[in-house]
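quick one before i forget lol
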Amino acid sequence: MKFRPCIDIHNGSVKQIVGGSLSDKGDMAEDNFVSQQDGGYYGELYKKRGLTGGHIIILNPAGSQYYNADVEQAHKALAAFEGGLQIGGGINNENAKNFLDKGASHVIVTSFVFRNGEIDEHNLSLMKRAVGKERLVLDLSCRRRGDGYYIVTDRWQKFTDTKLCRETIERLRDSCDEFLIHAVDVEGKAHGIEEEVAAMLGGIDGMPATYAGGIASFDDLAKLKELGRGKVDFTIGSALDIFGGHMRFEEVCDFGKK
């Protein structure tokens, strides 16, 4: 159970948002925290602590007026911690290599692989050919709808018809190096984890998976460890003191090393 730090970038700034509030229209989001530091600062911070496997997420779409500023922040983070961070947000087979060349260890993909509500096998093959299975992370971020949790795309705004379940995970596990799962309904709210999602990830054997969403205390981490059977890595954003929260970054780092 490893701590995987994050660098979320929106409107040209490193920030923490309420995940479910993100909207491409007007580049809007409900902010929890907007940092005065740039991506390079956080990349250097994570490098000093040896926190490999964290992720950068670009939250504006490619057509946004802020997209280039987001990419500039991402490049600063990658330069500060070359080979130590993954990157996601608008990744496809054409731009993925550029981010790897800039120092990303992996690229993280959702929307390009899920089209018309389902897994697009052709696009998945394109991604594997572009970067290789060993440098591909599939983001299975999800929201609750009806009888379960469904994968969401386009910066968590659009539901697919693909349910997050054991069958989906087994279908995809041979196509990537690991999974990243944001529980979007609790993302940025610091009100506790989605226990069903955590338990589902705990059922994955032999495949790295990282959970993000709602962690607000060490009790939440203990619950995630129990439900995830000690195998699920974790991300904390808004609750960390480096992002304006109350959980001490140093203590979280120590928890992840125990």
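fyi The longest strand covers residues 148-153.
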